């Protein structure tokens, strides 16, 4: 909240005066460098073919606002200013600060009415200028929210005290659970780990540079046809959250056509896979030893997609209760 | 931070440069290479067909015009050719030479970027120019530019224009916004609230009545003859009778091995040769606990050579054991090649002290369950082999060695009626009750339709007449003479008429639905309001039959497709052996409050995917030409 307040104060200053007067000479930075800085602060890049789209829920908007606000505060009177204002408006909208977003777009339109963002650069769906479209989106959103309450999900936070080590024959990997999301998945995983359920299960599926899949009790026995089909005998309700499936995410497998999370089989991702967001439940992240998982994923596979050289999950060291 | 980003950018640009460029020492053309004096200069034969871009005779000539900020502007031939020259070294290959279309796209996109204020200033150009930012690479880059026959200014222009275009795309990517009202619109399409009343016809009630009178033999015969499901249940699966001779070297005690080894010493050379010829199989058998020895922990200093392990070292004991014992099963196999019966196999195995597994009329499922440790490929081979055949050689599954002989095979067959007649009565009761319940549902529906016809009959007759007239008019208009085509046209209008009649009937159906229910003494049940739940309920896991029936209705696509007031056809649920006739009482939009936060974010992601797709579409193919209203000069 402190960050938001800072940005709001900064924004108010820029909106009212149109300039930030209290700048020291040393702090002045060339517009060229500011533009490059603004580019680096962009929360989303235009995706190339085959690249995943950066979805709104997976972006840390507070951080983006902070970075763009920092550029904006120093860009007064330069060609960077309208661009920084526009991007700030977009970020504020996506972080649910609709009134501020609207004020930002309107300020941009009032102060730079002839800028291409307000004239020739148009929205592909409506044909209106990008800024006009921004103002309209904000107005519509405010009107909608006046009668309907949009509920927000909490930002996920890792719990550093939950470090848990997976002892694989290929090496060790340490994971940490989230504090405030997927708590049932966390409890279930730790319960099974303490019972020794996962001990001597195999890594039964790998896709090089993509995923490593394990946690099936059937994989304790050398019968690859049955691997991937076992479970602890129950399923868990999905616990979706704002956690996006990125490299290092530990996610509970769901399987096609199933409505709930699997009880025990989980995957460690080695590549951003946002298509799994709101499909599977991510419950932890690898904080150490991801290179072990990466090496493991690149082993040669048999016809069952399992590593030719067996890799066992020998055991799991769970965090001790204080 | 700025310095860092520009530095990293330069490195990326340099890497790009190095990747694309041929080495100067190699020469730029194929003809430069020794031994190829007569070859065409750097041109793929196929690419000669494609139009090439030539230097214009009149650079000031207008190539075409476009609109930007409501003003008509032009691209000259000279401007176009200059752009071609800066793009050529980076984007043209002998296999895919640069096309005029690509050059034009670049020109227009850059104009668009320039209009939005993305063109790089001189200072920005300096910041992204690796010649200035990375002096260590200056010479190397200049050599490349020389090989490409372009100047430093052209190179910097290429980098800066590409960067401006990328900015344009990035700005659009960041302007993607999804309104909550759009999210709600998407969500409510799948979450409309249905309230239904329905009559159910369960097989259970009818089955109890049916059981009072046993079925006749003719009824059972007919049932067995015509019902493919019962045939599948009764079918006898393929079974085999076979002998499998198995040897597990790990089961032999150490003393026995020492006794067999006697004074024979297996040298390292012999063992290594055995390992290399069986490497793939043996490496799989390295015990899991030994495997980490092969992979020293990453990030740590490598251990001394004498502490390193190889697979051969880890497997040495097993190799020795296999070499001492290995010929046992081979001897048994050799002796079995001339076997004529099961007894011969057993004798050959006994002579070597090996175990024989006898499979007696065993199905594929049984073999897989009981002898899975021998591997699935064994049974595939066995079930495809001819009786009397022997395995091709000794086979391995992990450490276990084995071979087999198939004695007999009985293919899948349907047993005669007499053999199974006793077990047919129960399925007959169930199947017949299910069919009769379905019949009852259809009768009920027919009664409702008959009642409706009493008020819609006149209108339906009118529709039939109208369909006939429309068909005749259309036939005349088209001047059709051929009987087949005339009949097709009539058919088309008859179908139209049937559809119209269905609409008329469905409008009046609700009025008569309730009255027929009352008249026939059925119980009318209610369900809802509920939203469509297909795929969200695992019905197999529900134990309560009533709950399962409700879940069926809540996930029925037929009900989802009905409008308010509509009556369904007879819907059959095999799982609960029930048939339903359903009337949709209401179908309403759900309130926003019913949408959970998860649903909100989930649908927002779907909407965003769609919007991003539309935005990205701007940069494909001829979109820049369409957007800027490009008109070529003729």
The CATH topology annotation of the largest domain in chain A reads as Cyclophilin
Strand neighbour order, sheet with most strands of chain A: 1-2-9-6-8-4-3-10
Oligomeric organization of the protein chains? heterodimer
Helix content of chain B: 40-55%
**Overall pLDDT metric of chain B:** 82
Poorly predicted regions of chain B: 1-48
Question: Explain this structure to me?
Answer:
- The complex is a heterodimer of chains A (322) and B (634).
- Chain A is of the alpha+beta class and 322 residues long.
- Chain A has two domains: 5-147, Serine Threonine Protein Phosphatase 5, Tetratricopeptide repeat, CATH 1.25.40; 160-317, Cyclophilin-like (Cyclophilin, Beta Barrel), CATH 2.40.100.
- Helix content of chain A is 34%, strand content 15%.
- Chain A contains eight helices and ten strands.
- Chain A is elongated.
- Chain A starts with a helix and ends in a 5-residue tail after the last strand.
- In chain B, the strands form three sheets. In chain B, strands 8-3-10-9 form a four-stranded antiparallel β-sheet.
- Chain B has 26 helices and eleven strands.
- The interface between A and B is large, with 76 and 73 residues.
Name some characteristics of this structure:
heterodimer; A: about 325 residues; alpha+beta; Serine Threonine Protein Phosphatase 5, Tetratricopeptide repeat; Cyclophilin; 2 domains; eight-stranded antiparallel barrel; two-stranded antiparallel ribbon; 8 helices; elongated; B: about 625 residues; four-stranded antiparallel beta sheet; 26 helices; flat; disordered N terminus
Sum this structure up briefly.
The complex is a heterodimer of chains A (322) and B (634). Chain A is 34% helix and 15% strand. With 322 residues, chain A is α+β, with helices and mostly antiparallel strands.
